[in-house]
Design a protein that fits this description.
Length: 474
């Protein structure tokens, strides 16, 4: 939108994983902006290289640019940290090649204003049109940053700020008027920090309950009174982060309770929420140092699932994304961050932190056992029975038997097998070699397809201690 406002002709492509980017991307661009998570870094580097060879100036923004700016500067003319309209205007007016190292630009903080749904509608609509399912979810954001301090999280070091309430109300009215039976997904890092204000924005915009919502919120915000209000306002799904039974008790209002007490308390809390909200995904981070040793952390999660039959568990492997979080400095200093190719850093296909309390095979055994337990036929059936709305019921089954549940189980089993049978894998996991095992290279080649040929030399490698070196230099 900011490029359009500056008078440029814009072609927008939202890559959902299915498009043929060779076809979709225009060939004759003056400047290419890419917004990417780290998982998409290698394909972004390849695309940037392809266009730079044709003389296009390229820009990277988004989480990968914030987490790995030094690496990204090797492959883009500009790399953007916090990005507001002034930063974008600066890039547009300079618009020149910066090679071999791109220019790094950042605002002092997250933008105070972002273009809303009405302004972005032609782009949102085009993206929704190509969604394969009939469930179309409109993205909105009500706040940036988070007041909590979870040490692994990129938003823990970003000041919390709500976005403009008038703009949100205008957007909700627009959606209500223009879409049949709409669903809005709030992309706030932690929705509802200013709970009453968030609810008033919704309640004053259109007749109650005529838009449905999905949001990620801390359990500490989800008291019964608040949950009733969420239900009345059409909240269909809530994704609270439990993360660990051993730490971050402030997020769940369990303070310093022992792990078992915390699990029991949270299980009751989750069941209370599910009496009002039909779909609940509980997020966990596996491999945190605080989780201690042995089977207990995993067994507690299994017991939690027994106590909460309706919940869908989402497991993330502890990952240190470059400069994202303060914890990463300590991990890099301790030599525990491994140089897995970015392509696999999606919290599931690789854990780039050596676990403190487990050997790798033992950790993978627990991970496989927990994943298997979470998605047995019996558990899927219980989850199906525990939900009483068609969409949540169906979604839980599809997610369990697709690449997310059974697919990950198969993948983790394969990694466990390779740890036993492929010495190059084991050496890499132990940090004894930086050579990327052929398993990862072959998979990346396959998944990048035609773009593999454009991946610049060295772009599958990165320095996993770059943040530490930069900090020490400063
Ligand atoms: S509560 Fe969520 S968004 Fe906030 S710092 Fe913790 S993990 Fe990040």
């Amino acid at each position: 939108m900011w490029c359009e406002e500056a008078g440029h002709e814009v072609h927008f492509v939202c890559y959902t994983g299915f498009e043929d980017l060779m076809e979709e991307l225009p060939q004759d661009m003056d400047i290419l902006f890419v917004g990417a998570f780290t998982q998409a870094a290698q394909i972004s580097y390849a695309i940037s290289n392809m266009f730079r060879l044709r003389g296009t100036v390229t820009v990277l923004g988004g989480p990968h640019a914030r987490c790995y700016p030094e690496d990204a500067r090797k492959y883009f003319d500009y790399v953007l940290g916090f990005t507001d309209k002034v930063v974008v205007e600066g890039v547009l007016s300079d618009c020149s090649q910066h090679r071999p190292y791109g220019e790094y630009l950042s605002a002092r903080e997250q933008p105070r204003h972002l273009p809303g749904v009405q302004e972005r509608w032609k782009y949102i609509e085009a993206t929704l049109d190509k969604t394969a399912t009939s469930i179309k979810i409109i993205p909105m954001i009500g706040s940036l940053g988070c007041p909590y301090t979870c040490s692994f999280c990129i938003d823990s070091v970003v000041d919390y700020q709500p976005m403009d309430y008038d703009q949100m109300q205008g957007d909700l009215r627009f959606i209500h008027k223009n879409m049949k039976d709409p669903i809005v997904g709030w992309h706030d890092p932690n929705y509802g920090i200013r709970f009453n204000e968030c609810m008033e924005v919704i309640e004053e915009s259109y007749p109650k309950g005529e838009i449905r919502f999905i949001a990620e919120s801390s359990l500490s915000l989800l008291s019964e009174k608040n949950v009733k209000r969420l239900r009345a306002n059409g909240f269909l799904a809530i994704l609270p982060g439990i993360e660990s039974w051993y730490s971050m008790g402030n997020k769940s209002k369990t303070g310093r309770k022992p792990a078992r007490d915390k699990m029991e308390h949270i299980a009751e809390h989750i069941n209370m929420i599910m009496r009002y909200i039909p779909y609940l995904q509980a997020n966990f981070v596996l491999g945190l140092d605080d989780d201690g040793e042995g089977t207990e952390p995993f067994e507690l999660t299994k017991e939690f699932l027994d106590r909460c039959p309706g919940v869908f568990p989402a497991y993330s492997l502890l990952s240190a994304f470059g400069e994202a979080a303060p914890l990463n400095l300590d991990l890099q200093r301790d030599g525990r961050v491994l140089g897995f190719p970015f392509h696999f850093l999606n919290n599931n296909h690789a854990m780039n932190v050596k676990p403190k309390n487990y050997e790798w095979p033992e950790f993978y055994d627990h991970l496989i056992d927990l994943t298997r337990y979470s998605f047995t036929g019996k558990k899927i059936y219980r989850r199906f029975r525990a939900n009483n709305m068609a969409i949540p019921k169906g979604m839980n089954v599809v997610r369990a038997i697709s690449s997310e549940g059974w697919g990950r189980l198969k993948y983790h089993r394969h990694i466990r097998h390779l740890l036993e049978t492929d010495q190059s894998m084991r050496d890499f996991f132990e940090g004894e070699t930086e050579e990327i095992p052929s398993f990862y290279i072959d998979r990346m080649k396959r998944e990048l397809g035609e773009f593999w040929a454009y991946l610049p030399d060295g772009a599958i490698l990165h320095d996993p201690t770059a943040y530490l070196k930069k900090t020490d230099q400063q």
